[in-house]
Amino acid sequence: MFRNQYDTDVTTWSPAGRLFQVEYAMEAVKQGSAAIGLRSKTHVVLGCVNKANSELSSHQKKIFKVDDHIGVAIAGLTADGRVLSRYMRNECINYSFTYESPLPVGRLVVQLADKAQVCTQRSWKRPYGVGLLVAGLDESGAHLYYNCPSGNYFEYQAFAIGSRSQAAKTYLERRFENFTDSSRDDLVKDAITAIRETLQGETLKSSICTIAVVGVGEPFHVLDQGTVQQIIDTFEIAAEQEDPATEPDAATGQEAATEQGTAADQGGSTDEGAAPMDI
Amino acid sequence: MPASCLLTGSYGSTLRYKSVERMKPIGKHSLLGASGEISDFQEILKYLDELILYDNMWDDGNSLGPKEVHNYLTRVMYNRRNKFNPLWNSLVLGGVKKGEKYLGTVSMIGVNFEDNHVATGFGNHLARPILRQEWHENLSFEDGVKLLEKCMRVLLYRDRSAINKLQIAKITEEGMTISQPYSLKTYW
Lengths: 279, 188
Hints:
The structure holds 2 protein chains of 2 kinds. Chain A is α+β, with helices and mostly antiparallel strands.
């Protein structure tokens, strides 16, 4: 994507029918650190990579509890993410107060999308620079939605956003057919593995990733570091035991992942013709 | 789950209108019955119409059940009471959604609660004691109707503002039916 004369205002169309400011907002999402989500019939798991600016600082909070039955993971401008989380919490609590019932996730997601759309059609506003993975439970089951700065939303079985998310997506694409009937613990393991894919060789520690779960009989909560570290340790043990067989696979897996990672970072080159939000 | 009401509309203390339906179905799952000011009841029905309309417009497989409608009404009644401009009604809200039965009541000042049997006005004094004695978890529909008729008969005998013309509504998972008006046999 290159600078051009149609990208100054969000209210200016390009001759090809694109709104560049909105697309730039989606770029901001791609620059944020990775967040992934996956769901089964009864549970939804969110995970994200937490990078801290320096060893001295704490890391960005990227997973927010919106209500007992809804949580959100963000990627992109975290400040925008916080503001939208506050909006979502407000909507949930107002609905709960009036109807004594949890707000259906699908409705919250539509309200969020409509709010994002407003910012793509006012000359004095800018689009929100954050992508949200909304995980929630309601009468019709477990749901995972992705809300985009363009005002679009989609429902997913599993999804990943942010930098190097392609690696996680590939992993999820291979495994998603099993997710519907996965147990809660398997789902969490899959989430952690997907996060590991985005780290591209860096060691996976519970200090750099955060996992949150919501499910039937389980209100939305973030798993504590100790629990996450335990689960990570179980993989490492399993990986060591399978060493001879998996070593070559792991090596080729990593290479393939890095290639895809760089391709994704070079961004729009493959998608130059089609506007991202139309995909 | 049966519910019943008399078809009366009063003009002050005169029983002026004798064919007023005071029970209405709300959405797919609930039934609302009211006593008190009929015009305020009609106003409430308008609010609920709008509520159900917006709920249906989402077109997303979710629908407002009796619990949600009951709470919405509580909010409305309480808010009006706070503004010193109450809707002069006592409401009974019942329904079945996903196999779960619900029965609740809201008064004109916003007092609300759920119970296995509720009543408005004189019903609280004359009918509920009977229901307390004779209600049990496994009442069949026919027995429920007999029990209600027993209560309505007592009310007919003892409440000066009652006429012998009532309707029974039946609410089940499949939907609801409101009977045609009929009279009770009395033993003067």
